[in-house]
Specification:
The chain is an alpha+beta fold. It has a domain of 116 residues: TonB (TolA/TonB C-terminal domain). The chain is built from five helices and seven strands. The chain has a four-stranded antiparallel sheet, with no helix packed on it. Strands 4-3-7 form a three-stranded antiparallel sheet, covered by helices on one side. Strand 1 and strand 2 form a beta hairpin.
């Protein structure tokens, strides 16, 4: 008898949820596989072979960029940190050009990312099937490159204080 009351309450609460009809305006679209698309002369084609950077792709390029980034003194002194997102284009010849800065917490941080990208080595270009000629040819491919600027915590930071009691603790492996 004691178990009957909680079961009855659960059933009463669950029935309205089960009886609710789905709203046709809230119908979700079926999941569509997104592929990089290249456009030339009003024709679009799917990229068959993505650009390669030193036997890798965008992740390998991101490592290359991070290894060359220097935190600008001005940004450090002013306390600027955050995510800089730059749209880059891997050209048909493998060179990298800058499309635009999509997001940046401070212009000085964006300038540093642009400086590093300007010295970028060439990629192996992406390739796509030209719908008009039927030939596979190099194409321009656009990427979004996120670069995060973040201060390293010091031993006096509040976020580090709780870990100080641990043996051999070093913030961020320093």
């Amino acid at each position: 008898m004691k178990n009957l009351l909680p079961i009855a309450v659960c059933l009463l609460l669950c029935l309205p949820v089960a009886a609710k009809k789905p709203n046709p305006k809230q119908a979700t679209a079926p999941a569509v596989e997104q592929r990089d698309t290249v456009v030339w002369e009003n024709t679009s084609a799917s990229v068959q072979e993505m650009p390669k950077f030193r036997k890798g792709g965008l992740d390998e390029y991101r490592k290359w960029v991070y290894s060359r980034i220097e935190y600008p003194d001005e940004a450090f002194n002013e306390g600027y940190e955050g995510l800089v997102v730059v749209a880059i284009i891997v050209e048909q010849d493998g060179s990298v050009s800058i499309d635009k800065v999509v997001e940046s917490p401070a212009p000085v941080l964006a300038t540093e990312v642009l400086r590093v990208i300007a010295g970028s080595p060439k990629w192996t270009p992406g390739k796509a099937l030209d719908p008009e000629s039927g030939l596979v040819r190099p194409v321009r491919v656009r990427y979004l490159l996120p670069v995060e600027f973040k201060f390293r915590p010091t031993m006096n930071d509040a976020s580090v204080q709780s870990f100080k009691s641990q043996k051999n603790f070093k913030p961020y492996g320093s």
